[in-house]
Write a structure and sequence with these properties.
Layout: E1 25-26, E2 29-30, E3 32-36, H1 46-51, H2 70-80, E4 86-92, H3 99-112, E5 116-122, E6 140-145, H4 153-160, E7 170-177, H5 183-191, E8 197-203, H6 211-228, H7 251-266, H8 275-295, H9 303-316, E9 319-320, H10 321-331, H11 338-348, E10 358-359, H12 366-376, H13 394-398, E11 402-403, E12 424-425, H14 430-443, H15 445-458, H16 461-466, H17 468-474, H18 482-491, H19 501-518, H20 522-538, H21 542-558, H22 565-584, H23 588-607, H24 614-630, H25 634-654, H26 659-678, H27 682-702, H28 708-724, H29 728-748, H30 750-770, H31 774-791, H32 797-816, H33 820-841, H34 846-862, H35 866-886, H36 893-909, H37 913-928, H38 936-962
Parallel strand pairs: 4-7, 4-8, 5-6, 6-7
Antiparallel strand pairs: 1-2, 3-5, 9-10, 11-12
């Protein structure tokens, strides 16, 4: 029977559907939408082109044949056909360089080769909202994301983490953007977490580098525009005299010159040569078009008002119809009802998708729209284009915050005694409007000086509302306004914000460079480096963060006699921060050394009578303890973790009632309980992890949504300890709750919470296994393995260790189901990962490597490969013996017992009787030395030892009798 699904929607509602993927919805609308890439060339009717020649410049119309860019197209083709399963590449260049045309050509070529080609649109680009994804992606998918630098980082990562992209055998995502500022390096650092490889970064150079190439490009465009305007064999015009100038590095300028040349010839006008005059000419033709429509009665809106509507559309971009009318009203359009102007504007600039219910289609290409904004705004020096005084302050009027509606209060007004007016809300088009204004200000100084900087000095929060790409773009404006940037700085959140973080790092870097030039105070210079390092860490720019913290440490260490106590305190904190940055870059051993040095300095100051900042001192201990725990060095971690807990108990007592202090204390309780658990002290661990879970639960109720991650981690750890202390049902309940919370978080923000989701799935798999629910356990661990495989692609030791643990448990789950042949690859993967860690990081990974070698040897023996298994067991025994020689009290004797029993069994299978007897003799001695009352598992290994010994002795006795 064929399955079917029926969807019903009431009038006025929307339906969102997706096949084989996730839908991410915010405030009732999809965060993004995916549609089939439009591979058709949109023809522009000759009569339209004659009235609005600028229409011929729109990239989607593809009037000029694609030429040049062969090298870039070949590079993208090689990337597309590489062996990598999923990869993301970036093409970037300034406006008008042909990024969209290159992407369209790649799309067309890919479709001819059998690829499915889709385009992704952010919610700020309103298109038809009937679907989120257009169907099955097939075997090979190319997804093109234009304006990628304007997407909020969270939303872009949601798209890249969608299971839809993991369905085809090959998936390529091409990001198209104007810049590759810090947003791209920060995104590259997170691609591995979404299971994607970072592909090439291609910056488009000038379309035509030499004078000859520019002549050819000019004439190709001239011929194409002549045909589009209905002219047959017009005379070839002289190429622009300054064709070698920098302005003609931009492909669009070449095309504009060719279009203006043929259109002015048709109208018997003198063609302008200056690039600004080319824009002016085309904008004058738009004015003529508005006037002709008005004079012919096709629109009632006067050209003066239409010009202002076009100005508004250039800022807001396409909007839903009602929002478009509201925007025109807010910006101060008078003389005609907004709804009439919206309708008349659609006559001049029809929406690309008439069925979408949107309006205010902007002028294209973007660069021409930016020139229109600039030339309409008073302050420029272009005598041939009269600005509109109305444009002064237009952006400020458009972006004034909306007053939030007051909540229903049973007839009472918000201004009743004791009530507060709801805070104003940002307008829905703030992000595209600020992006357009900022991009215009990059090339037109008067827009920056008269509009953008005054706006941000008065309302710096707007830059934050514009997102990370706007904040980063502010730093690229030549006529920088430091007071405005400093005002923006004061509005930045202290906590990490994935979307803002790259832009914030760029802003703080610029301000830091300026302040460093002005400062000769070592203490102040060190503080500047520390503040920048913290922001770089938040942006995921770890090597740069290391450089900043290293500068701070160097400055503070260079002061005579170490400087005052305040400098020494700051040095201790900087050393700890430098260690954390080093840890993020994978230099774990050096990181531990630096964090240890910081704590030692804190303690020296404390002994000399200096009062320490409890928060910083506690953080230094907690960070070092966690790093050591993640490195498998629990014994070394314990004193630091315990001291961090003691300090946070003290801080909590001094700041009773503060959520931050309570959360820090809960984290330290949980960390200490986890450490005790790892040391085998399960019953001691239970009260700590239970206390932590209860504290987080109370915080979760008091501050909904704020502590979800912490609650999930605490519940997972509680489940682990409950399982070890004899409460399997309580353990399973806690693990399920933890996993449900983590899954919800990962769906909302994959980049931030995929690791947590994998962590909790791994824990749930173990709890299910202990309940003998083996199929469910296998399902959970395989999900965890998929997530952790993606995370481990960045090569960090902690992620490699986590993947090794999950691969090892996948082996266990499959073996429990009687599927040893399927288990072997997972056991081997775990060994390979642990061996790599052991070789790179040293002896801390020796015990887990030995344990997994034993498992692999055992699994290979089950699939009749004793010759392959025997050397693995021998290697494991060597590692465990070395561990005991280095530390006689190391808790590895039970593992050596297991190893020797497995090894002896393999020797028996291979009829290596003398070796088997030696291994069994060592095992018997070892078992006799173990404390009585061991676990059931150890007793089982003892029973197996007895059986194996008897079999070997029988074989030896039988061989002697035969002899």
């Amino acid at each position: 029977m064929e399955a079917s699904q029926h969807i019903h929607a009431e009038p006025g509602s929307s339906v969102y559907a997706v096949l084989h993927g996730d839908i991410h919805v915010r405030n009732g609308r999809p965060v993004y939408q995916v549609t089939p890439f439009d591979l058709t060339r949109r023809s522009v009717p000759v009569e339209t082109a004659l009235l609005q020649p600028s229409r011929l410049l729109a990239a989607e119309n593809r009037v000029v044949p694609f030429h040049g860019r062969g090298g870039e197209l070949d590079a993208l083709g090689r990337w597309q056909e590489s062996d990598t399963a999923r990869s993301v590449a970036l093409v970037h260049a300034g406006g008008g360089q042909g990024k969209t045309r290159l992407a369209a050509r790649l799309a067309a070529d890919s479709a001819q080769r059998g690829w499915t080609v889709w385009a992704a649109h952010h919610r700020s680009d309103p298109i038809a909202e009937q679907v989120v994804a257009p169907g099955d992606p097939g075997r090979a998918l190319l997804l093109i994301v234009d304006y990628a630098d304007r997407w909020p980082a969270d939303d872009l990562l949601m798209l890249l983490s969608n299971p839809l992209l993991h369905r085809p055998r090959q998936c390529r995502v091409l990001l198209v953007a104007r810049s590759a500022n810090l947003w791209w390096p920060a995104l590259q650092n997170r691609l591995g977490k979404a299971g994607l490889d970072a592909g090439p970064t291609i910056e488009l150079p000038a379309l035509a580098g030499s004078h000859t190439d520019r002549q050819i490009s000019f004439r190709v465009a001239h011929q194409a525009f002549s045909e589009a305007l209905g002219l047959q064999d017009p005379p070839l015009p002289a190429v622009p005299a300054d064709l070698d100038g920098e302005a003609y590095d931009v492909a669009l300028t070449l095309h504009m010159a060719a279009l203006v040349a043929i259109d002015s010839f048709r109208l018997k006008l003198t063609a302008p040569r200056d690039p600004v005059d080319l824009s002016r000419y085309l904008l004058d033709r738009e004015h003529d078009f508005w006037l002709s429509l008005h004079d012919n009665g096709r629109v009632s809106t006067a050209p003066r008002i239409m010009r202002r509507a076009v100005y508004t559309a250039a800022l807001t971009g396409t909007l839903p119809y009602a929002e478009a009318a509201t925007a025109l009203e807010r910006i101060g359009l008078s003389g005609s009802p907004p709804s009439v102007v919206v309708d008349d504007h659609a006559v001049c600039y029809p929406p690309r998708d008439p069925a979408a219910g949107v309006a205010l289609e902007p002028l294209y290409p973007d660069r021409l729209a930016e020139d229109f904004l600039a030339l309409s705004t008073p302050g420029h020096a272009c005598a041939g284009y009269v600005p509109d005084p109305w444009a002064t302050g237009a952006a400020e009027r458009l972006l004034r915050p909306e007053q939030a509606p007051s909540p229903a209060t049973g007839g009472l007004r918000w201004w009743r005694r004791g009530a507060r007016q709801p805070p104003p809300q940002a307008v829905p088009y703030a992000r595209p409007a600020l992006a357009a204004l900022t991009d215009t200000a990059r090339r037109w100084p008067h827009v920056a000086e008269r509009e953008l900087w005054p706006l941000l000095r008065a309302r710096p929060q707007l830059a934050v509302e514009g997102g990370g790409s706007v904040v980063a773009a502010l730093t690229e404006i030549e006529c920088v306004d430091l007071p405005a940037l400093e005002a923006v700085e004061k509005c930045l959140p202290r906590h990490q914000d994935i979307d803002l973080a790259p832009g914030v790092a760029a802003l703080i870097r610029l301000l830091t460079e300026h302040r460093l030039r002005l400062s000769d105070s070592p203490a102040e210079r060190a503080e500047l480096h520390e503040a920048l390092g913290s922001r770089l860490l938040q942006a995921g720019l770890w090597p740069e963060a290391v450089a900043s913290f290293r500068s701070a440490v160097s400055i503070r260490k260079s002061l005579p006699d170490g400087g005052p106590a305040s400098n020494q305190l700051s040095l201790a904190g900087a050393l700890s921060a430098l260690g954390m940055a080093m840890y993020r870059t994978g230099r774990q051993q050096r990181a531990v050394e630096l964090m240890t040095e910081g704590i030692q300095l804190f303690r020296e100051l404390q002994r000399s009578g200096v009062t320490l900042p409890v928060h910083d001192f506690a953080m230094a201990h907690s960070n070092l303890g966690m790093a050591l725990m993640e490195m498998g060095r629990g014994r070394e971690a314990e004193p630091y973790t315990a001291e961090g807990l003691r300090l946070r108990l003290r801080r909590r007592a001094a700041h009773s009632g503060r959520a931050e202090a309570e959360a820090e204390l809960a984290a330290s309780l949980d960390n200490y309980g986890l450490l005790l658990y790892q040391r085998g002290r399960h019953h001691e661990a239970l009260p700590y992890v239970r206390d932590a879970a209860e504290r987080y639960a109370r915080l979760h109720v008091a501050h909904p949504g704020r502590f979800d991650e912490d609650v999930s981690i605490a519940l997972k750890n509680l489940g682990m300890v409950l399982d070890a202390t004899g409460d399997p049902q309580g353990a399973l309940d806690a693990a399920r709750k933890a996993c449900a919370i983590a899954e919800g978080l990962a769906r909302r923000n994959p980049s931030a919470y995929k690791r947590l989701h994998g962590y909790n799935l791994h824990g749930l798999a173990i709890r299910l296994h202990h309940h003998a629910r083996f199929e469910e356990s296998l399902s959970a661990v395989l999900q965890a393995h998929e997530i952790r495989s993606a995370l481990a692609q960045d090569g960090s030791a902690p992620d490699a260790l986590h993947l090794a643990e999950t691969a090892g448990f996948a082996d266990t789950a499959l073996a429990a189901l009687g599927r040893p042949a399927e288990a072997v690859p997972y056991a081997r993967e775990s060994v390979d990962l642990l061996r790599g860690l052991y070789e790179a990081e040293g002896t801390m990974y020796r015990p887990p490597l030995a344990g997994q070698l034993v498992v692999l040897a055992q699994r290979l023996s089950q699939v009749d490969e004793p010759h392959t298994a025997w050397p693995l067991a021998a290697e494991a025994a060597g590692h465990l013996r070395a561990e005991l020689r280095a530390a006689p009290d190391a808790p590895v004797r039970p593992f050596l017992l297991m190893c020797l029993v497995v090894w002896a069994g393999l020797s028996k299978d291979l009829e290596m009787w003398s070796e088997a007897l030696e291994q069994l003799t060592e095992a018997v001695d070892l078992f006799a030395g173990l404390p009585e009352g061991g676990t059931e598992e150890y007793e089982a290994w003892g029973a197996l030892l007895s059986v194996t010994r008897d079999e070997v002795l029988d074989a030896l006795n039988g061989g002697a009798q035969e002899a």
